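Each record in this resource describes a single protein on a pair of labelled lines. With that in mind, the following record should read easily:

===
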Amino acid sequence: MVNISAFKALKYNLEKNRNLSKVVSLPYDVITPKMQDAYYSKSDNNIVRVILRKETGKGDRYLQAAKELNSWISDGTLVYEKKPVLFVHQQQFLVNGEKKIRTGLLCLVRLEEFAKKNILPHEQTFPSHKADRLKLLEACGANMSPIFGLYEGSYNFKSIISKKPYAVFKMKDKNGEVLNKVWAVKDDKTVLNAVKAFKNKKVFIADGHHRYEVGLFFRNKMRKLYPASTDSAWNYIMFTLISLHDKGLVVLPTHRLVRFVFKISKQKMFETLSPYFEIKELKTPASKDIVLYTDSRYYALKPRGNKTFSAIKEKNSLAWKKLPTSLLHHLILKKLPQSKETAYTRDISEVKEKVNDGTFHAGFIIPDISAKTIMELSYKMEKMPHKTTYFYPKLPVGIAFNKF
């Protein structure tokens, strides 16, 4: 089972940075060049200057990021907690007009190989993404961004969140505004109770697979250099742990836009896919099945039972084969002409727009996937296709850092 720990967190000095909304950012992998510019303009101390530093042509950007981080420590922009602490992080937001509140525990989790089955992944990773994060980790010697972890069961935060938070800030994204509240947990008894409570839990990685695998690689590298340092800070990695049963847990789908090597008619698509799917025109994209958007029309693709699932050649469970993204990437797109370009969006209106204007030949609208399904496949150690899940909202970067 997992081992969590309080830590002497490095964090923004609120006396110098009263408004955290000016210095925090979203995770690096969702930041567009336009967003990067906006974060740069917000503050000279915005964390994006470290986690996704601009190329200037004046040397290695990872070393420049490390220099920036160290300068903030030297001038008091960032300060260390005097004793090990935990943080409770709460996010309030709207989804389809409904108010949601999600609460998590920001802490360190001891790194373990997935083979031990205490910390479980659910998505595939890519070498190029890991190489980028490794360079930043080696240069800065710090975990900058918490991994989003899920656990079964619950933890009672009431006694903590009933008090005044030490920090409150707002962030905006494409889906709206998110109110963030943070409490620092310094009481030794409360910290000890939390550490004990999580000893019996497994953790599922919701977001941050690349950073976790990079953390493992870095830990193994450091252990070879310093074999006696089994409890050094690089044996741990920052997580924000949220209950699978939290009423504010939201998993949004990521839709696909596809441009084929040559254009294919709607009729030909139907001929190719109809042996495996019942195809039904819809007035709206609301469906429990994948919805194909082409020729300004929506079409539900309902699997024809075992015939469909057995056509997927991968040696995975039936539950994995039933995933909409498994059906799409391992059956539908293999039967259709080769994809020249694939783009991802969470906005159905963008699917319509980009297909209607001819930028892409077809759009595939993905239905929701439950956190329970993610958990079940994680237990089986079956990794889902890339971008199967999008946990909303993203965890901000800048609440705390784990400096080695």
About this structure: The longest strand covers residues 98-110. The mean pLDDT is 94.
